[in-house]
Amino acid sequence: MRVLLTAAALGLSLMATSAGAQTAPPPGRLLASNCYQCHGTNGAGPGFDSIAGKSVDEIYKELREMRSENPGNDIMKAHARGYTDEQLRQISTYLSQQRSTSSGRD
Amino acid sequence: MSEKSQDKLLRMRRRLLQAAGWGSIGALLPTIGCGGGSDPAGDSTSSALGWSSSRTTTTTTTNALPNTGLSGRVVVVGGGMAGAAVAKYLRLWGGSGVSVTLVERSASYTSNIMSNLVLTGQRTLSSLQYKYDNLASRYGIARVQGEVVAIDPVGRKVTLASGATLAYDRLVLAPGVEFIYEQGVGIAGLESAAAQARVLHAWQAGSQTTALRNQITAMPKGGVFVLTIPAKPYRCPPGPYERACLVADWLKKNRPGSKVIILDANPGITAEVHSFTDAFMNVHAGVIDYQPNVVIHGIDTSTMTVDTSIGKISAKVINAIAPHRAGRVVTAAGLADQGGRWASVNQLSYESKLAAGVHIIGDSAGTAQPKAGHIGNQLGKVCADAIVRAFGGLPPDPAPVTNSACYSPITMETASWLTAVFAYDPSTQAMAAVADSFREAAARDGGNFSNMSKWFNALMSETFS
User: Fold this and answer.
1) Interval A76-104: pLDDT, tens
2) What is the rounded distance in angstroms from the CA atom of residue B8 to the CA atom of residue B73?
3) Which CATH superfamily is domain B3-23+44-179+325-400+421-436 in?
4) pTM for this structure?
5) Of A30, A34, A72, the CB nearest to B397
């Protein structure tokens, strides 16, 4: 499942770029970096919940749920409202490929 | 992902390339796209994707950086939230072939975020200082402590005060802001250094923060503290209101009978309207007097009187957040085309609209995004991504997203928050807030206050470690 999703996202990215596609960065890399201010570089902390290395489905489902709930006093529920389904999927895919430890960068 | 599935993906990717008719173009590009790497096909492609490196990194040394096959020289001027982030991500994403030199005049960065808590004695200034050692040792960023005095965008080099020059392929300017005090432009009466030492801005954390703390603790019971807020845009939209709340709370507990008068040049509270209206009308009622739409005619530092459109106000402490503009390196280079204050940039890459190869990020950039540290970090990453792509012959990401977030103390124990996601609008070619994400906390509470420290520590670690 993860591979299929990645391949699908990759296809989209290739279509979005032009001649120099040789060096196109992984899809979702820049988008997912919006998470790092609160969840650490590559989502691996230190910070709020570690979000690196979970399955695509787990991250995606959680983000969609948060987006649908009344934010109240929960900043993440407000934040999740800033992304489309496709963007949440790209973020989830990229984060799922990151190591759950911070590679010593803590 | 296993090696096998990576291989499978790469094969799939090549098929997609060929299907799209780019296979042949790709084959012609290796020296352009991969900086002259000797392996034009498989290996350089896989390393450029950054998967193998990001998944096998085990050490904290510069050896952990991927070899993407890309190369280029970047000089970053300014080591604040945006400058540090762009330097780090140029190396993380660009790899070992992208050299980064960070020029910063100070030996360490002092965070503006949380610095209002120095005024209440809840934090020390030294607890807000971050050195550049991690950026140097973990990412191999070359560090130059100095000041850029001239930019040559044609010859692509900068000159330092020491006389040394640094050549670049891309230059990133992230100098933050400079406060405006010139006669006829700044607040009348604050032109001299002596006046500026008496009426502080304390809007750049450092010695002024400590000095303002000392002025506050020297206040008598029943004293008046005046805070003036410039017309937007200014750095950290909720910051002045947060400061008023914290000073009011401290005075309430330590100097009973004192007042905080806010003289706001803006027609109303510019950020977190719900939280700060509640703060001024309820939480700090009787202590904070909020006055919008106020024009400051001048400040007399000998009598400590502010002459305003609503009359003359005398105070024990006047804290005038002077209007500001892009840092001097930007204005001196003639790049602050927006009223001489802020720099217009391509909002996909943060490249100056006036100088090719010069990128301007952080507070100096003139966009609809707030001037603040959390989003400054993100502008650094968008800019790094665009420069790395450019070194590979690629255009910038056509749909960048950034986000702003902050926690704001309302009292010494409670806080609110504010957040917004910004997305690129191709029709205006500008970043714009995603309306549904532009929100503030439902209510101030202690949970937000403790999350504030967690957020701050995460943000600073992400930026400087």
Assistant:
1) 999 999 999 999 999 999 999 999 864 43
2) 34
3) FAD/NAD(P)-binding domain (3.50.50.60)
4) 0.85
5) A30
